[in-house]
Write a structure and sequence with these properties.
The structure is a single chain. By secondary structure, the protein is mainly alpha-helical. It has 2 domains: 12-111, Tyrosine recombinase, N-terminal domain (DNA polymerase, domain 1, Orthogonal Bundle), CATH 1.10.150.130; 127-311, Intergrase catalytic core (hpI Integrase, Chain A, Orthogonal Bundle), CATH 1.10.443.10. 57% of the residues lie in helices and 4% in strands. The chain has helices spanning 12-25, 31-52, 64-76, 81-100, 127-141, 146-161, 165-170, 199-219, 239-250, 263-274, 279-286, 291-294, 296-312, and strands at 176-177, 182-186, 192-196. A 3-stranded antiparallel beta sheet has the order 1-2-3. Helix 6 (146-161) runs antiparallel to helix 8 (199-219).
């Protein structure tokens, strides 16, 4: 019998493994993206094995009903439409790869439509909340404690450059040029971009450099002298630690709104567009592949204006 990957006796997961390796090594996708693709395809393979039988199906013989059954399976599990759409996108990419490799001649995933979901307006801080946030951060950092000085620098740079958490973590000392006021960022797909760093962030980063260098001197050879942001053990800070540090401070000012760490990136984009920045320039600063992704921030700006209109206009 012809195996699922198109070769006799080959197990279903072999094709998935080969595709994931292709994404990591040939497409040079980020580790987070590769893990997401693998996770979705492993769940799809498990579903097929359970509902079709491990020895009775082939990638080339799946049909539209199978695809719809998998989406229904995700819905029964309570998976969001957004996550279901991501899973279907992974399956489509997988089939496109198999087609190029001559392993299948048809793609049943194209016969079903993407789950429709509402585009959520990103949560962000207004100017008053930002002033409260940075005033509190500066007050704490004035004490000179390493974590407090570092967290001020993190949040200043986060908002100043509109970065993703993973991008913030990945910044190396060689990427940061405070004399020119720019930082080189490695975004999704390992694409690099240059982003300006504002005066407030530059001052916070210079003060942080002083305490970081003192920490590295104390830790000696154990210190990571490549990364910009370090833990108290002088190792590159983790994404989880970054997330926790940012959300802790956001919790002080968001008045129960439950803003995520990415609210600073959303605030960056919203405030630029509110001030009249060019949409294409904001797209480049954010590292979005498509301007349609950036356009959601124009919706945020318009919604804010509509709220102001409803509150103030006598015939709104």
């Amino acid at each position: 019998m012809r195996g699922p990957a198109g070769h006799p006796g080959e197990r279903p997961s072999a094709a998935v493994d080969a595709f994931v390796e292709h994404l990591a090594k040939e497409r040079d996708m980020s580790p987070n993206t590769v893990r997401a693709y693998r996770r979705d395809l492993v769940e799809f393979t498990a579903y097929l094995g359970e509902h079709l039988g491990s020895e009775t199906w082939d990638w080339s013989t799946l049909d539209r009903l199978t695809m719809r059954g998998f989406l229904a399976h995700l819905a029964r599990r309570g998976v969001s439409k957004r996550s279901s759409a991501r899973a279907l996108s992974a399956i489509r990419s997988f089939y496109a790869w198999m087609d190029r490799a001559g392993l299948v001649s048809r793609d049943p995933s194209r016969a079903v439509g993407m789950p429709k979901f509402d585009r959520r307006l990103p949560g962000h801080l207004d100017r008053r909340q930002l002033e409260i946030l940075f005033a509190a951060l500066h007050t704490r950092a004035a004490g000179g404690e390493y974590n407090d000085v570092r967290n001020l620098a993190i949040i200043e740079l986060f908002y100043s450059a509109g970065l993703r958490l993973s991008e913030l973590r990945g910044i190396n000392r060689a990427d940061l040029d405070l004399l020119s006021g720019v930082v080189k960022v490695r975004g999704k797909g390992r694409k690099e971009r240059i982003v300006p760093v504002g005066d407030h962030a530059q001052r916070a980063l210079r003060e942080y450099e002083r305490v970081r260098d003192a920490l590295c001197a104390r830790m000696g050879t154990k210190a990571d002298r490549t990364a910009v942001f370090l833990s108290v053990r002088a190792r590159r800070i983790s994404v989880r630690a970054l997330h926790d540090a940012v959300t802790k401070w956001l919790g002080e000012v968001d008045e129960g709104a439950g803003l995520s760490a990415h609210a600073l990136r959303h605030s960056f984009a919203t405030h630029l567009l509110d001030a009249g920045a060019d949409l294409r320039a904001v797209q480049e600063l954010l590292g979005h592949a498509s301007v349609s992704t950036t356009q959601i921030y124009t919706h945020t700006s318009v919604e804010r204006l509509k709220q102001a209109h409803r509150k103030a206009h006598p015939r709104a």
